[in-house]
Specification:
With 380 residues, this protein is mainly beta. 12% of the residues lie in helices and 34% in strands. The protein folds into three domains: 158 residues, no CATH class; 113 residues, Rieske Iron-sulfur Protein (3-layer Sandwich), CATH 2.102.10; 52 residues, no CATH class. 41% of the residues are buried. The model has no long low-confidence stretch (mean pLDDT 90).
């Protein structure tokens, strides 16, 4: 692998197991509720749910404790469904920009987060929560995100009774009912494997789940605890504006899940409110479920477009990766009358620090500033 990295190498740690010490899965066996190989699942276990056209499937977090990555090739899609137990982050990516290569677990961590590697001849490293390569020949390449929901297995089945689910016939001998990290996931537990550069953001419990929407400027996080405390009903709709777009977050306390959508159907804006048992839009009175589908009323059968960049993670991790969310730099391209530098500010797109590094190099070659020392400094 090319040793070049656009993240500080000093902040990349070995997590213990070496490369592929945690074995990723590729196209694992799927089954149906109460089918062979699904006995390990309890209704309260959390799953990562995907809707791909008319197909629905669930990848249990129990499986991801031991494998962290599931490569899927289905219906023309080449996907990597990922979960980092240390940051609680569940994300799915299109593997296309990595030449559809499978992803594996590198054994390395950045900000306590899973670093994947691609199984190309010249491999690169891809930190999960940066959604792109940060070391190697693909440095700077982003992976498009695909919408996923995280909720309990029982709740997912209620929404999608015919869903498929990954069985325990993975080819590996693991106890998929056993959580191997002790009490690490307790919301108030401040224990981390490695220290964060800027420490833990204390505004929320460190291991509280949040639904985060990544965007330039830091995006926005919706803590599950705040969603529950701020709403007197089990179902709620929160309208916000993120990255210049109107979004709505559906919250379902009974299913312990939240998801973000664009609040419109066929180009018509919709306004949602939560009630005791239903989510309703004010425009047509249609009834909606947290999965973004109308089940009653004039819009029955309509599906809202999910926000692909929305995903669940622990609060400490979301805050560490999204303090600003938008990389920026200031370079001294001009001087005032006293010879002091005047900085010109540049901002990059989310997670594209590498672009700014390249731009800074090009600007310094075109307009060198290294030796531009003000006269009064030289004279002094």
């Amino acid at each position: 692998m090319d040793d070049h990295c656009s993240i500080p190498a000093t902040q990349i740690y070995s997590g213990g197991p070496g490369k592929d010490g945690i074995p990723a899965l590729t196209n694992p066996e799927m089954g149906f509720h109460r089918g062979r190989g699904t006995e390990y699942l309890r209704d309260s276990d959390r799953v990562i749910g995907l809707v791909l056209g008319s197909d629905t499937m669930a990848i249990p977090i129990n499986i991801m404790w031991w494998h962290e990555i599931v490569n899927l090739d289905i219906g023309g899609w080449s996907l990597a469904v990922t979960h980092c137990p240390l940051t609680g982050s569940s994300m799915a990516f299109d593997r296309g920009p990595a030449n559809d290569a499978e992803f594996g677990v590198s054994g390395l961590l950045y900000q306590n987060n899973l670093i994947m590697y691609d199984r190309n001849t010249n491999e690169s490293l891809w930190p999960q929560m940066l959604a792109g390569a940060r070391c190697g020949v693909s440095d700077g390449t982003l992976l498009p995100m695909r919408p996923v929901m995280e909720m309990t297995w029982g709740a997912w089945r209620e929404l999608y009774p015919n869903t498929q689910v990954v069985t325990d016939n993975t080819g590996f001998f693991r106890d998929y009912r056993f959580y191997p990290y002790g009490n690490y996931d307790e919301p108030n537990n401040t224990e981390l494997l490695f220290p964060l550069v800027d420490g833990i953001d204390s505004r929320r419990p460190p291991k509280e789940r949040v639904l985060g929407i990544a965007a330039p400027g830091g995006g926005m996080a919706f803590p599950f605890g705040a969603l529950a405390d701020d709403n007197s009903t089990a179902l709620a709709a929160v309208h916000e504006r993120v990255n210049g777009n109107d979004i709505v977050v559906f919250w379902d306390a009974d299913r312990a899940t939240a998801m973000a959508y664009y609040p419109e159907a066929d180009g018509t804006p919709l306004t949602f409110t939560g009630h005791l048992y239903n989510l309703l839009d004010a425009e047509t009175g249609s009834v909606w479920r947290v999965g973004g589908v109308a089940v009653e009323g004039p819009l029955a059968g309509t599906r809202l477009q999910a926000v692909s960049e929305a995903y669940v993670a622990y609060w400490f991790a979301w805050a560490a990766f999204n303090v600003t969310g938008q990389p920026a730099m200031s370079v001294p391209l001009s001087r005032n009358a006293q010879g002091l530098p005047i900085g010109l500010h540049f901002a990059g797109r989310y997670a594209e620090e590498a672009t700014l590094f390249r731009l800074a190099s090009q600007l310094e070659q075109a307009c060198p500033w290294f030796d531009q020392i003000p006269a009064w400094v030289r004279e002094g």
